[in-house]
Design goal:
Strand order of the largest sheet of chain A: 6-5-4-3-2-1-18-19-20
Number of domains of chain A: 2
CATH class of the largest domain in chain A: Alpha Beta
Protein name (chains A, B): Ribonuclease Z
Binding site for Zn(2+) 2 (chains A, B): 66-67, 211, 269
Mean pLDDT of chain A: 93
Oligomer: homodimer
GO molecular function (chains A, B): 3'-tRNA processing endoribonuclease activity; zinc ion binding
EC number (chains A, B): 3.1.26.11
Number of helices of chain A: 11
Keywords (chains A, B): Endonuclease, Hydrolase, Metal-binding, Nuclease, tRNA processing, Zinc
Number of strands of chain A: 20
Chain lengths: 331, 331
């Protein structure tokens, strides 16, 4: 029952040798969602050993090149390796026309079915839902229309206490009912669901927010989210520039995470103008200590059996991320 | 007086960890021509330490993604780093509209001057000329219109014999006349140009030919070219597939080079279906022994002071390329 995020690109508009432009993959119980697709995303998928055959949903936050120029090549490659499964693309309405303008010289007809789901400015809405996950898009504030995405795992079924199965000789149809919250009757007495089950672990959640001016407009929506990836293009010394270009500083991202009472904050989309990436993490942690500067290749894992920690795999190392336990315990 | 080719991408449509899609840079006396621009070309320029600030001319052979999907990101990056010099793009006429469709959401107006030079199908013509180099485009044969490019260094000025300068007390204005082929008069006698000068070295030349079905239609044009980069997507065992997809086999590329009597052949655009890239070189050399399978990062250098060898820098090593000496000596 995996819930894992892989960072494919944590840089801003200018790719460098160790930070590519924005892209990441969220795996929710083996549904793989590609979020943004900067140039070179197909190269990063290979590098970090994620199969693009598993990707059936691509979400594009906005039409700045560092967030979507890799889409053309990825679709071409999917076609060349013989994809026939449908691909769902969620993004600004103009993206559909733009995509076909670029691909037309190459493909006389759609190489495989592509379902385009246009996002609508100024509205928050469910853009995907199945039995295990729901995705909500919400508008952010940038120089072009841009959306954040909130991924929420659905409530799990209740966990049956296995001792009770033999004690009450519970049948398989009854088990399914009990998991869904039902009770059973034995000797004309109701045996309550509460006696038969344990609470399931709380559902997991993740929000992606880039590029945007810091705004509290969408605070309520993402409040108590487990993990947020928020852009932090600038340091606070360049707050005026952040405002002018409609971006966020590392300090502001920390303030936002603190107010939103999340468990952990990942920051990224760093401008290349600064000497060290560590400066972003340092500045952000003054406001919210449970913050990490993302690196390309980072894999963040929500353990399936507890809600009090995240694991991060970075290169050869795996370690626990410090999390906001106040929140972790209250949920 | 450099004449150097850097291979940025030697693969075909599917990029791999060691071969990116097509792109290369030809430096002709410090004019840098970017030829094709597959996805990730800006990453490769950085990796192989070529400044994109020096690039004022980009030639796009055709509108298959592995030859131009990197153009969007490269132009965006050029803009972000403050480019103001004009950029010249040579390519299929549709490219101009396509480019602006993609860049429009990002740029309200042209970030810097872009001069678009549409290529015309079915014609061969000079697309660029200055005092040191001339570029000719010529149509190849593929599933979409595609052009090859021939780069020819211009005839150098004659080299003055320095002993003669003191012997005849030659003035600076006279030196310039002599270099251009003129003679001088001393004591009412003409001193011939031949006595005063050495022949300049023959001009250098390079042709780029991909993607294409093998065709002798353009043989005359590229005959005796120093170096040709020719696609060799398939091995001869897949000749039927090469014909069907309008590509060339390694064997055919070798036959073409032999007939064209060139000094050396570089092959590339290899399909990923084969186990080893060495197979292409092996097959090709049976027809034309002076052939090399290109690798990303290869730098081929035409020495300035002789015409009987090429140097190749590959990784940490520099070595001489075997060349067709019969041709080298006859020129």
């Amino acid at each position: 029952m995996r819930f894992e995020l892989t960072i494919l690109g944590s840089g801003s508009a200018l790719p460098t040798s160790n930070r590519n432009t924005t892209a990441q993959v969220l795996n929710v119980l083996e549904r793989f969602f590609l979020i943004d697709c900067g140039e070179g995303t197909q190269h990063q998928l290979r590098k970090f050993k994620l199969s693009f055959n598993h990707i059936h949903h691509i979400l594009i936050s906005h039409l700045h090149g560092d967030h979507f120029f890799g889409l053309f090549g990825l679709i071409s490659t999917m076609s060349l390796v013989g994809r026939d499964k449908p691909l769902n693309i969620y993004g600004p309405p103009e993206l559909e026309h733009l995509l076909w303008t670029v691909l037309k010289p190459q493909f006389e007809k759609t190489p495989f079915p592509i379902n385009f789901h246009p996002l609508h400015a100024e509205t928050t809405g469910t853009i995907y839902e199945d039995k295990v996950v729901k995705i909500t898009s919400f508008p952010l504030k940038h120089s072009v229309p841009v959306w954040g995405f909130l991924f929420e795992e659905k409530e799990r079924l209740r966990k049956i206490n296995s001792d009770k199965i033999s004690e009450y000789n519970i049948s398989i149809p009854e088990i399914n009912e009990i998991k869904a919250g039902g009770s059973i009757v034995r000797e004309n007495q109701i045996v309550s669901n509460k006696e038969l089950t344990f609470d399931p672990l709380p559902p997991r959640s993740y929000a992606f927010m880039t590029d945007t001016l810091l705004s509290r407009r969408y605070m309520e929506l993402v409040k108590n989210t487990d993990l947020i990836y928020h852009e932090a293009t600038f340091l606070k010394e360049d707050l005026a520039l952040a405002r002018k270009t409609l971006h966020t500083t590392a300090q502001q991202a920390g303030i936002f995470a603190h107010e939103a009472q999340i468990k952990h904050l990942l920051i990224g989309h760093f401008s290349t103008r600064y000497k060290s990436d560590a400066l972003f993490e340092e500045e952000c942690r003054k406001e919210f200590q449970y913050a990490t500067a993302a690196q390309d290749g980072d894999k963040i894992i929500w353990p399936d059996n507890k809600r009090t920690t995240f694991l991060i795999i970075r290169g050869e190392e795996t370690f626990e991320l410090a999390i906001n336990n106040e929140i972790a315990e209250s949920r």
